[in-house]
Amino acid sequence: MDTIKIGVAGLGRLGLIHAHNIAGMKGVELTAVSNLDNTVNQQTKEKYDISYTYTAYEDMIQNEELDAVCIVTPSGFHPDHIYKALRKNLHVFCEKPIGLDINEVRNMIPVIEQSNKVFHLGFMRRYDADYMYAKDMIDRGDIGEISIIRSYGLDPIEGLDSFVKYAAKNTSGGIFSDMSIHDIDIIRWYTGSEIKQVWAMGNNKAAPSLSELNEVDIGTATMKLENGAIAFVAAGRTANHGYHVETEVIGTEGMLRIAATPDKNKVTVFDNNGVIRPTSQNFAERFRESYVKEIEEFVRCIRNNDKPEVNAWDGLRSTEVAAACQTSLEEERLVEIQYER
């Protein structure tokens, strides 16, 4: 296989990032895009000299030139879009989450496992240099056995109004599926253990109207893992200082923090406002290289007939935990998670 031809489904913020990264890779061609807004399709086509554009995903995957698809459509469509792509013998990269309906995701697992095509799920933090460095330390036993993990994901408040409008017409799956899914994956990845209990809470101090939409602008969850470790996650859409992703791991022989402050770079400004460190303003900026690396890994697996580390089970387990958090939030109770093994 000389040039791997990929079609991108969905041209929202993240879809455009993936399209840009794919278009710039050697040995890879951004051959097609599908998106409901044809104006965006044409703009993307002209920018990257794309051969084909579609307003329907089902039409795009009929294109026999394609080797793979990158699915960045709304989360609820992911299981159906994965299934249809695999049935067309296409390799699949799918953004998180793998889906919103747990039964749909469970039914998708055998289809993925029985396919001879590569399936890669977009948990980009696993490809971030800082998170990978910390993972190596943990695996070497540098901080002993993990006792507690604290992980935050806070979006800039400037995007809150846009989310309120989105939530009025669409379902995000709740803040834990939409945002904390990355923290949940990191907790599972770092500990090698499943989460068995969750207690979640949230509120809408910044956007009270979200209460009518069964959404929150801040959500937290305390978790107990099967190996006895404890985790705490917080997700929000109200960070005034920028995009804030932070993780702390406390072990029996030490502790580590990843991005304790959301620094944009190594510049420090000293002026009449005091001492200031510029901060990252969005996920595309903070995880720019991670998004490239995960697609590079996807392409490598296609070429080498290999399996990526991130698999469908990771997607299912993280979705199950996120759903349990949502249930706990809505019903105001401790939720025990029962996994189908």
From TrEMBL:
Gene Ontology molecular functions: nucleotide binding; oxidoreductase activity
SUPFAM superfamilies per the UniProt record, alphabetical: Glyceraldehyde-3-phosphate dehydrogenase-like, C-terminal domain, NAD(P)-binding Rossmann-fold domains
Keywords (A to Z) from UniProt: Oxidoreductase
GO BP term, pick one: NADPH regeneration
Keyword Oxidoreductase: yes
Pfam families for this protein: GFO_IDH_MocA, GFO_IDH_MocA_C3
Occurrences of domain GFO/IDH/MocA-like oxidoreductase (ranges): 131-257
Keyword presence, Zinc: no
Domain Gfo/Idh/MocA-like oxidoreductase N-terminal: 4-123
Origin superkingdom: Bacteria
A single Gene Ontology CC term: cytoplasm
Family statement drawn from the similarity comment of this UniProt entry: Belongs to the Gfo/Idh/MocA family.
Protein name: Myo-inositol 2-dehydrogenase / D-chiro-inositol 1-dehydrogenase
Lineage: Bacteria, Bacillati, Bacillota, Bacilli, Bacillales
